[in-house]
User: Fold this.
Amino acid sequence: MKHVGLGLVLISMTACSRTEIAPETSIPQNELQSGYAFLTAETQALQDDAFENPGFLWVDRGERLFQSVASTEPSCLTCHENGLDGVAASFPKLDPETGELINLEGRINACRTRHQGLPPLAYESEDLLSLTAYIAHQSNGDPISVDVSGDAAPYYELGLDYFITRRGQFNLSCQQCHTENWGKQLRGDTISQGHGNGFPAYRLEWQSLGSLQRRLRDCDTGVRAEPLPYGDPTYVAVELFLAARAQGLEAESPAVRR
Assistant:
């Protein structure tokens, strides 16, 4: 793998203006790789072992929450007794009731407020992470497949724009790292292609499970930009764009990432 220092990245990446950034943000299908491919053999083994992968603590907790009944309200299992195989691989998607784009966390909270009479769960709360991990795990091995046509198209364009726009004191875009420089070394880490197919994921840096939105916020903080609030519609649009960019990759939550 090629190595590139942060200084060289900053110089080369800021040499062009916003309008000069190449519009081609996709990775050729034959080069498409999950973040799993950029892990060490030891970390890959940790992800592959359901007894050792710490993310399964949240999956198991999510299963219990899915089956539990709060007060007199129905449980998730009441409506979804056949499970939710493959469902997570199609998110984000438009909410048929509001017409707005929602991610899996948004769908869970919509079910709580509309059908269970329960309050929405906060991002990164143990309950929401657990339910998301349990549902996402049911899509493992299914190809990521989202719809970006029709009314979803403006959201896709919003996510694309965020991906290619430079921001922060480092003046970097997602595009410049994850499309133009993937596979290179930066501060001892290998730059991945930036796909979200393993989220929610257990990151060794966090020593915890976290959502894709937490990772997006980390990336913004990393380039010294002000992160958006959890659940911000722009971040949900970025999730849609990333899912479309990863179209065909298999879902693999709970992944383990550095």
